[in-house]
Amino acid sequence: MDPTLPDELRQRLARLDTFIDTEIRPLQEQDDNARFFDHRREFARTDLDAGGTPHPDWEALLAEMARRADAAGWLRYGLPESAGGSGGTELDLAVIREHLAARGLGLHNDLQNESSVVGNFPLVHLFLAFGTAAQRQEFVEDVITGRKRVAFGLTEPGHGSDATWLDTRAVPDGADWRITGGKRFNSGLHSATHDLVFARTSGDGGDARGITAFLVPVDAPGFHVDFHWWTLNMPTDHAEVTLRDVRVPGSAVLGEVGGGLDLAQHFVHENRIRQAASGVGAAQHCIDRSVQRARERVTFGQPLARRQAVQWPLVELHTEAELVRTLVRRTAWELDRVPHHEISDRVAMCNYRANRLVCDAADQAMQVHGGLGYTRHEPFEHIYRHHRRYRITEGSDEIQLRKIAGYLFGFAGPRRDR
Question: Which residues form the domain of 396?
Answer without folding.
Answer: 261-408
